[in-house]
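Subject: sequence -> structure tokens, single chain

Hey, anyone have a minute? Need the predicted structure for the following. Not urgent.
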Amino acid sequence: MNGPEPSEGATDVTSQSQDAGWRDPGSARHRRRRSLIVWQALSSVLLLAMGGIHLYLRFTGSGGLIGVLFVLNAIGGLVLAVAILAARRWFLRVLASALGLLFMAGTLLALVLALTVGLFGIRQQLGGELVVTTLVVESIGTLVLVVTTTRVLQMRCAA
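Reply:
Had a minute. Here:
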């Protein structure tokens, strides 16, 4: 026979139309994907900012156990920021964004505890170095990571 089987041609057209949805800048699928990338980038920037604040505080006077925890926070923020941007499979994207959310929210909770009842025997004051900045970055970061995690989960449902 000279032409392709009818089922082969139909399969090719179907797969081409599905692939075109990712590349066509006007398609809804492309816009959702681009929106997710923006949210992931914003999440990564806020995780890096949080880690950077803690690293700065470590090298400007926080020592002992708190200093070690601040360095670990900076490393964790860096690793999660990279993971959010680098993950390609859906499950890994969900895992990275959910862990980032838990990490950011946990760090915010630790600061709120240090401001109210104390944490590891240390009670922080609202007027302390970068306390207000940290509260703002971690609060916004938590909200952005909630949106990012939700968007990643929606991508699976829309696929």
